[in-house]
Amino acid sequence: MHRYRSHTCGELRAADVDTDVRLSGWLHNRRDLGGILFIDLRDHHGLVQLVARPGTPANEALSHLTKETVVRIDGKVVSRGADNINPELPTGEIEVEVSAVEVLGAAEPLPFTINTEDGVNEERRLEYRFLDLRRERMHSNIMLRSAVIASIREKMTNLGFNELATPILSATSPEGARDFLVPSRLHAGKFYALPQAPQQFKQLLMIAGFDRYFQIAPCFRDEDARADRSPGEFYQLDMEMSFVEQEDVFQVIEKVMTDLFEEFGNGRHVTSPFPRIPFREAMLKYGSDKPDLRAKLELVDVSDVFEGSEFKAFAGKHVRALAVPATGDQPRKFFDGLGEYAVEQGAKGLAWVRVGEGLPDKAALTGPIAKFLTEENVKALAERLGLEPGHAIFFGAGEFDEVSKIMGAVRVEAAKRAGQFEENVFRFCWIVDFPMFEKNEDTGQIEFSHNPFSMPQGGLEALNTMDPLDILAWQYDIVCNGTELSSGAIRNHEPEVMYRAFEIAGYSNEDVEREFGGMLRAFKFGAPPHGGIAPGVDRIVMLLADEPNIRETIAFPLNGNAQDLLMGAPSEVDESRLKELHLSIRKPVVK
After folding, report:
1. What is the 8-class DSSP label of residue 9?
2. Would you give per-residue pLDDT tens digits along the chain (591 residues)?
3. Fewest Cβ atoms closer than 10 Å to its Cβ: which of 30, 57, 107, 548?
4. Do residues 68 and 115 make contact, with C-beta atoms less than 8 angstroms apart?
5. Is 586 annotated as a binding residue?
6. Does residue 401 have a known ligand-binding role?
């Protein structure tokens, strides 16, 4: 018999009764029922119940061992009997009567329990991540991640893509976040940068003639953590295609995402095809460029309805309205609750009216601001919003971006509270037609609003003849259930367009040649039209696992302060190493 096991803990069944077996695993739980010990033994493959009779050496050995001790046991498979079957376990029809025990790895007292999802704080869990990963939920999440990545590789290969690696040590690039810098020992005072994305290299692969590229790419960005963003590093399905337009990229990714989410979504419906929503329309209707389409409600711009109004709260401001159909008589706490929610999002309050019988008569409206609305206001709102008796109307007023943020959040929350929100579904969409440039509100400088390597719609002519803030780019985001999975673009592949686009953003030709010399040089030697995208693997798994925090889908994540509490990173290095790297440390002065 094998030194450690003849079977795994998850594979024994009723057909194995009377079989002598050897198992190895962790002591998951122990119960003493009148001197008879029942032990749950766990390994990667599952869990099986052991039984140790009173007075046996096995009973004596197992009664004193700490949970999570690693043991090897010998024993015989016996039937539990019809009355004792555990239908929740694949091994629930049998148990193993233990005859011998060997301790393979002793365990100290545990800092928290493994066999329950108790309220251990995240810092403690990350400090002992190797224990946390033994929990059933965490183990399942990591195995889901492994299966998702394997499936992605298979799907991309079947679609004719080639998996190619790109460098980790490279030059700094303006991807929109801070680089992680690596000092060079051989070149004093110079630094490599860890890639924020393989952006330039995958474009160079297209220029080199590889046609269809992908990789499960590690990316590194020195940015703050969020619930859907891990600090430090993340992984993405990075892909690029030659001789394509926007729709060609969409067709590939829609197929991969639809198949992937159907495969691992546990029966949740995937809506397909994915709608294409222009950026400006998304901001107006949903208040966000990553709309959650499970919420069936839409915002409506009613600024013109109140233009010249004497109602000071709305006059001269951007006003967005949200009409919510009644699902029965909405109690006052429904309105107050949404008002409190809006305040949590940064609003000073939330104006509302309730619609009764008698439209378009003003008397049909009741609520805190009904008296401020004119007959003309009511008539216009009734027509614009398609009002019916029972509707509630919520209003947000102020600057465009502020109103969008607040009312976008209110839209989703109102849908959930009013029964206008779809559950158990994955609703994807494409956000398209992003602005190529935006104005920095602090400096007044024109800047790239998205990816600087994107092709402007209209090409060089648009750059030369249009107001930069009116130029759209062939840029797009893919969004699922309110989570942005990725940005992508049809790339600029023409040197003249690159020079001019960067000139508008304040770069001289010399700046472009210095910072993007490799890319620019490649463009001058026959570059094909190309484009791509890079959906985030961590976010895909987060959605499939229905986890609210992305760190629950990563084996060894950093905490919210970008620290590895298990390994102690970042850490200090000694003076000799600093000298070798031509560095000195200047710590901030603590006042």
Report:
1. T
2. 899 999 999 999 999 999 999 999 999 999 999 889 999 999 999 999 999 999 999 999 999 999 999 999 999 999 998 899 999 999 999 999 999 999 999 999 999 999 887 788 999 999 999 999 999 999 999 999 999 999 999 999 999 999 999 999 998 876 567 899 999 999 999 999 999 999 999 999 999 999 999 999 999 999 887 777 888 899 999 999 999 999 999 999 999 999 999 999 999 999 989 999 999 999 999 999 999 999 999 999 999 999 888 888 998 899 999 999 976 567 888 999 999 999 999 999 999 999 998 888 888 899 999 999 999 999 999 999 999 899 999 999 999 999 999 999 999 999 999 999 999 999 999 999 999 999 998 898 999 988 888 999 999 999 999 999 999 999 999 999 999 999 999 999 999 999 999 999 999 999 999 888 888 999 999 999 999 999 999 999 999 999 999 999 999 999 989 999 999 999 999 999 999 999 999 888 877
3. 548
4. no
5. no
6. no
Reference 357, options 348, 347, 366, 370; nearest CA is: 366
pTM: 0.92
Of residues 272, 270, 293, the one with CA closest to residue 282 = 293
Q: What is the DSSP letter of 293?
A: T
Residue 360: asked if its preceding bond is cis (omega within 30°), the reply is: yes
Residue 124 is labelled as binding a ligand:
no
DSSP 190-239: -EEE--S-SHHHHHHHHHTT--EEEEEEEEEEB---BTTB-SEEEEEEEE
Amino acid at 489: A
Amino acid in the structure at residue 335? F
Contact 309, 403 (CB under 8 A): no
String of DSSP letters for 357-419: SSTTSGGGEESTTGGG--HHHHHHHHHHHT--TT-EEEEEEESHHHHHHHHHHHHHHHHHHTT
Q: Which is nearest to 196 in space by CA: 217, 216, 162, 221?
A: 221
Is 564 annotated as belonging to a binding site? no
30 is in an annotated binding site: no
307 has binding-site annotation: no
Q: Is 137 annotated as a binding residue?
A: no
Q: Is 538 annotated as a binding residue?
A: yes
Angle at which helix 537-545 crosses helix 136-158, to 10 degrees, equals 130
**Cα gap 474→480, rounded to integer Å:** 20
In 3D space, the residue among 523, 546, 517, 430 whose CA is nearest the CA of residue 206 turns out to be: 523
The three-class DSSP label of residue 51 is strand
Q: Which two tokens stand for residue 234?
A: 């993340």
Structure token digits, residue 362:
């003003």
Contact between residue 143 and residue 544 where contact means Cβ atoms under 8 Å apart? no
175 is in an annotated binding site: yes
